[in-house]
Amino acid sequence: MMISLTINGKQERVDVSPDMPLLWVLRESLNMTGTKFGCGIGQCGACTVHLDGKAVRSCSTPASTAAGKKIATIEGLSPDSSHPLQQAWIAEQVPQCGYCQSGQIMSAAALLATNRKPTDQDIDRAMSGNICRCGTYQRIRRAIKRAAGIRQEA
Amino acid sequence: MSKATNLSRRNFLKVSITAGGGLAIGFYFPGLAQQATAQARVFAPNIWVRITPDDTVTIMISALEMGQGVMTGLPMVLAEELDADWSKVKLEWVGADKRYGNPAMRGAQATTASQSVRGLAQLLRQAGAAARAMLRTAAAQTWGVPENSLTTEKGTVVHAASGRRSRYGELVEKAAALPVPKEVLLKDPKNFSLLGKSVPRVDIPEKVNGSAKFGMDVRLPNMLFARVLRCPTFKGKVANFDASKTMAIPGVRHVFQIGSIPSGDGADSFMASTRAEAEGVAVVADNFWAANQGVRALDVKWDDGPLARLTSEEIRQQMTDACEKPGAAARNQGDFDKAWAVAAKKIDVVYEVPYLAHATMEPMNCVADVRQDGCDVWVSTQTQTFSQEAAMKITGLPAEKVKVHTMYVGGGFGRRGEGDFVAEAVEISKSVGRPVHVIWTREDDIQHDYYRPVTYLRYWAALDQSGMPTGWKARLVQASLFARFDPHGLDPMHGVDPISIGGIAGFAYNIPNARAEYVHHDPGIPFGFWRAPGGSVSGFMTESFADELAVAAGKDPFEFRRGLLGGAPRLKNVLELAAEKAGWGKPLPAGRFRGIAAVDSIGSFVAQVAEVSIAADGAVRVHRVVCAVDCGWVINPDSVKAQIEGGTLFGLTAALYGEITIRNGQAVQSNFNNYPMLRMNEAPEVEVHIVSSTEAPGGIGEAATPVIAPAVANAIYAATGKRIRRLPIRAADLKKA
């Protein structure tokens, strides 16, 4: 069936089965491959996008649920990697393999949107749904603090 | 992975020290010959580098980038010897191409065994140095001055006496006409200017905006998607299947059986499977969701085969039984039996680790496009060579017709050194005559892995009156990685698998009587290379055992080790550095305890001190890990730090959670809900101290993984008096009574 989606401010119409997860609509119907498939059961966070500003797992969000809501993906975070989190990710040299990082950045962006000066506990709470198999967690934490303008020890 | 290390000395170099102190290197590589180029104004002194008049230096990348930083580090090595301007360097991937093989990997393009830098650095240095020498000659001829009056810096040849300068781009035409020098002078590492600096990784900008293309992201016109339902029981077969419900799902186009191995298929390549491991039924559809729904609707009757009743308990019994008889001796020093006979005290203990999956964040997947006249493969792989070989086997096409497209790799850890997922995709594309992207779900990925093999080890120690060790013996039982692909098995090795037993036999502590034995036993579950396949097992065992010896001797675990490491100065040095930086012996906050461990593997030396606390329910929390690493001369210090941080967390996940259990010949675990990974809220801060060194570079991707389990286990002993001899660490065992 035809579903209307608002993705990164743009209207898209896709003809998909309504139970198809948003992840596959993005990746296959719309060729927006920045959002990644990791587990399919909402356990790893690689597929994180924003739905009306909240971080959700697109692998477990049916396309029909996303209709009528504002969807934001990594591709829409900034036109030129200028978002403070993207800049901080580069400055802290966070990614290794990089596969989970779209999801990590989208989770961090949702956190900073509602909490401009997160504590370590806030960061743990917001980010522990995102697995990084390369183990970049301490750099992610530093990058979030850098983007939030939180002073850190050298 | 260290399989090829003993075979890695094929890149014989004629080396002589020159009067100036540099190294003169004679060439023996076919790739180091001037390359003919279509364009006249390109200087391509060898297959690795070319320079154009606009000063662009293009460096070829033959290894795979999976986060370990080779895409930045390897070109830095060439750029260093070339004295290139790093801001003018561009990079170009190569696909499967024999000329770019890694001498340390028997000439294969295989980004495994922490061998990229160790196997390729010397080649790249020569390639860069030769190009630099020719550019200098070109300038000398242009200006009519002696070559030795010229220096190079940042992409420029300089004549200091006259102040003349010439950019490399300006010398391209002249240099291209020169013969390649027979010998070149390599820099003394102490004169490196680019190497040793934390150069930002070139792949990172693409990895923060979603534009980096992994194998999973390949999109081709006319492409179909597929999922395969593989026999859940290892070594089982498809008896029959009913596809009627599957075919009724909109978007599903084809359902057919795949993966049957014809008899007489022959041996796999020396380190990779080049065929599907499991029989299954492929569902091919217009999109992955339809393929996935199609798999769920399949009705397959399986012939469960020989392992249908195998369980982890049965495997444990097999390993115990296999350890009853002596194994092949990998080390025999002094006379252990005599030491044992006269020992005042004795230790006799067993260490065990389970099967482990790799769980790369990017599940296995491959795009194949098989046509009459050729085959293209787009894949996140650790080896272009074996991906190509897998495709050649199925298509019958020659190498020149099978093109492998290099993609970013979403985690490898050894899993992507295999070719099974490539073979499947090629078989499916060949059947349907269109490009197909075969995607594994996480469940497929965890339940059809080549697992780090289950391992059982028995240690004996003979102690004198004071508790000091006079001798030790180890007998290790593990399926042989080394024998997996070699048609001669372990015969040429006299029954010893160097990957399995290397770390055990190499026990560095100076104890007079020592014996290490190896027993090959394969319970039948597919097994393969994991991050530090030998070291991650032996490191846990040796360094926990060393701690037991320290306790028996009544000594401080750090001082005990230090006292016995006289023959291993680099290991001793990192041990001392880690202890110093961690404040070993100084008071800790209440409830925190330290453990120490030091492991020498893949040519690098790493010591760690872990600070641990244990909750009332037995849950282990690792707060801080202080690491000291000596990996020889360092290319990119920040990449070394990143690899030590990540490698530590990889080992910690295994220590705390990692376990694949077997029931009815199947893997019980299936996804991150029951095969958990360390998460942000559980991750310790890892502090890395790098030893400054001019020794040859060691590996780094796998260096830290072996050290953390014993450091944590030893801290747990300090906290509770309970010795961890079986991984993963079980909270229930540590619960306060």
Poorly predicted spans of chain B: 1-24
Count of structural domains of chain A:
2
Query: Radius of gyration of chain A over alpha carbons?
Result: 15 Å
Number of helices of chain B: 18
Q: Structural class given helices, strands, pairing of chain A?
A: alpha+beta
The fold-level CATH name of the largest domain in chain B is Aldehyde Oxidoreductase, domain 4
Distance between termini of chain B?
A: 41 Å
Which pair has the most extensive contact? A-B, 60 and 63 residues
Give helix and strand order of chain A, one letter per element, not per position.
EEHEEHEHHHH
Work out the helix count of chain A.
Answer: 6
Give a short account of the largest sheet of chain B: 7 strands, mixed
Average pLDDT across residues of chain A?
Answer: 97
Number of domains of chain B: 3
Task: Tell me the CATH architecture of the largest domain in chain A.
Answer: Roll
Query: Which architecture name of the largest domain in chain B does CATH use?
Result: 2-Layer Sandwich
Walk across the major sheet of chain B and give the strand order.
13-14-11-21-18-19-20
Walk me through this protein's architecture.
- The complex is a heterodimer of chains A (154) and B (737).
- With 154 residues, chain A is an alpha+beta fold.
- Helix content of chain A is 34%, strand content 15%.
- Chain A has 2 domains: 2-75, Roll (Ubiquitin-like (UB roll)); 84-147, [2Fe-2S]-binding domain (DNA polymerase, domain 1, Orthogonal Bundle), CATH 1.10.150.
- Chain A contains 6 helices and 5 strands; from the N terminus they run E-E-H-E-E-H-E-H-H-H-H.
- Chain A has a 5-stranded mixed beta sheet, with helices on both faces.
- The termini of chain A are far apart.
- Chain B is α+β, with helices and mostly antiparallel strands and 737 residues long.
- In chain B, the strands form 8 sheets. Chain B has a 7-stranded mixed beta sheet. Chain B has a 5-stranded mixed beta sheet with strand order 16-24-23-22-17, sandwiched between helices.
- Mean pLDDT of chain B is 92; it is low at 1-24.
- Classes of the chains: A alpha+beta (154), B alpha+beta (737).
- At the A-B interface, helix 1, helix 3, helix 4, helix 5 and helix 6 of A face helix 5 and helix 16 of B.
